[in-house]
TrEMBL record:
This is Aminotransferase class III. PROSITE patterns: AA_TRANSFER_CLASS_3 (PS00600). Keywords: Amino-acid biosynthesis, Aminotransferase, Arginine biosynthesis, Pyridoxal phosphate, Transferase. It comes from Devosia psychrophila. GO terms for biological process: L-arginine biosynthetic process.
Length: 479
């Protein structure tokens, strides 16, 4: 009797299995246990901020559309939107279905050995919704990876005599070391040894750009977010962009538009640069490109730029896709995401409901001028800037309080955000550089009714006035 073809299920493994948590056990971890695990194995310092805002008491059990649902079944309206990663809201049914079918059909995932029908289709779709000859696509797994690909393709195309990159004050392009070198946050730069071929200019200052191009022929690339997200939702004047395009053409500098946060329909056009009738040489997308379910980033370059950089068999592998670039289920998720974006008119919805949101916030700003300094943004990328603490205080306290403004920056929006969450079940986002800014990047499926719900909550919190906002916060901390 032959047993050669029968594989025993127990291979007599000698390697002992560690005491793992299973998937089902993971789902049932309670707050206390998650807190312990985060402290022991992840980022204990980060808990400080989560505790201040009250985030550490919430366990999300489910998420659907515009809402999270916590351990007590409470709904939380999501105006944070994962910093722009949730254009479709949570668990969009068409995106779930595409993923489910793909898994059930046991399709292939890794796109390295053979041509992938999914990666090639996604590349085609991205070229189809990108203007001009932005036709060549590199797929990765994050915004940082897409932006790394962007600065590398530009540097190769610019040639070895022109390796310098111009970037902007208050920029954010990611945390991997290449793009960290053109990210303007001292906190993130963290005294790392970064690449030194960079030149910093004020954002939106065309004269500074021209002065840099003129004075340094080694500059080959300029990298700019079309709308600065981490900087606090900052736009350049509309005429900056055509002037930038003209300057880049004149000096032979390649323009990389970082659309990781502001792209994918968020501002009411697929790319934010489309508002200005110009096309960059290279761009990058991530966040909602993954449909809120997959980690996908893409660099999209003009064909001649790409071909100069990697167009021959000898150069093709210099920056070919990484292991997970174009992976099957992620690509299929993005293909479906792009189809849903247009089928459901979400770009137009971002423009229309975004206008409504900004108008309603303007009304609140006029109602609470001592608290709110400015409302700005476009579509569903909105910044709500609060005054420094001293300016929001009663007149008699201002001179004393103003000495503390720097230290207290960000605390007023922090207090307001924590009240919104605790008392109204509304989630908002904060901002890296200008901490006085609350960032609103709700899913693009957001309706006027969702905006009304949000505005009613914000109105109630601001109607308390600054003193009660502070005392309520302190009371909640000691509770
Ligand atoms: C404009 C911009 N570029 C790049 C990135 C980096 O993306 P990721 O966090 O996916 O690496 C971000 C992330 O917030 C971003 O806002």
């Amino acid at each position: 009797m032959s047993t050669a073809m029968t594989l025993p299920t127990d291979l007599g493994a000698k390697t002992a299995k560690p005491k793992f948590i299973t998937v089902e056990e993971a789902k049932t971890l309670d707050i206390k246990r998650m807190y312990e695990l985060f402290t022991a194995h992840m980022n204990p310092g980060q808990l400080h901020f989560m505790k201040l805002l009250g985030f550490h008491k919430i366990k999300i059990e489910r998420a659907e559309g515009m809402y999270y649902y916590d351990q007590d079944g409470r709904k939380i309206l999501d105006f944070f939107g994962g910093f722009g990663s949730l254009a479709f809201g949570h668990n969009h049914p068409r995106i779930l279905e595409a993923r489910r079918k793909f898994a059930e059909e046991k399709r292939q995932e890794i796109a390295i050995a053979f041509l992938s029908q999914y990666a090639t289709a996604l590349a085609y779709n991205l070229a189809a919704c990108s203007p001009g000859d932005l036709d060549m696509v590199f797929l990765g797994s994050s915004g940082s990876e897409a932006m790394e690909a962007a600065i590398k393709v530009a540097e190769r195309a610019a040639g070895p005599a022109r390796p310098k990159i111009v970037y902007a004050e208050n920029s954010f392009h990611g945390k991997t070391k290449g793009v960290l070198s053109i990210t303007d946050g001292p906190l993130y730069r963290g005294q790392f040894k970064l690449v030194d071929n960079t030149v910093r200019v004020p954002f939106g200052d065309i004269d500074a750009v021209e002065a840099a191009f003129k004075s340094d022929p080694a500059i080959g690339t300029i990298v700019l977010e079309t709308v600065q997200g981490g900087g606090g939702i900052i736009e350049a004047d509309a005429d900056f962009w055509p002037k930038l395009r003209a300057l880049c053409d004149k000096y032979g500098v390649l323009w990389v538009a970082d659309e990781v946060q502001c792209g994918f329909g968020r501002t009411g056009k697929f790319y934010a640069f489309e508002h200005y009738g110009v096309v960059p040489d290279v761009t990058a997308l991530a966040k909602s490109l993954g449909g809120g379910k997959a980690a996908v980033g893409a660099m999209i370059a003009r064909r001649d730029v790409y071909m100069k950089a990697y167009g021959t068999p000898k150069t093709a592998m210099i920056h070919a896709m990484a292991t997970f670039g174009g992976i099957g289920e992620a690509s299929v998720t993005s293909i479906e995401a792009l189809n849903v974006l247009y089928d459901e008119g979400l770009i137009d919805n971002a423009a229309e409901v975004g206008d409504y949101l900004i108008a309603e916030l303007g009304t609140l700003q006029r109602r609470y001028p001592a608290l709110l300094k400015e409302v700005r943004g476009r579509g569903m990328m909105v910044g709500l800037e609060f005054h420094d603490f001293s300016q929001a205080m009663p007149m008699v306290l201002r001179p004393v309080m103003s000495a503390l403004d720097d230290k207290l920056k960000g605390s007023l929006p922090g207090f307001v955000g924590s009240h919104l969450l605790r008392d109204h079940g509304v989630l908002v986002a904060f901002t890296e550089y200008n901490r006085n800014v609350i960032r609103l990047e709700p899913p693009l499926i957001c309706t006027r009714a969702n905006v009304d719900e949000f505005i009613t909550a914000l109105d109630e919190v601001m109607s308390r006035g600054v003193v009660k906002i502070v005392t309520d916060f302190v009371r909640a901390q000691v509770r």
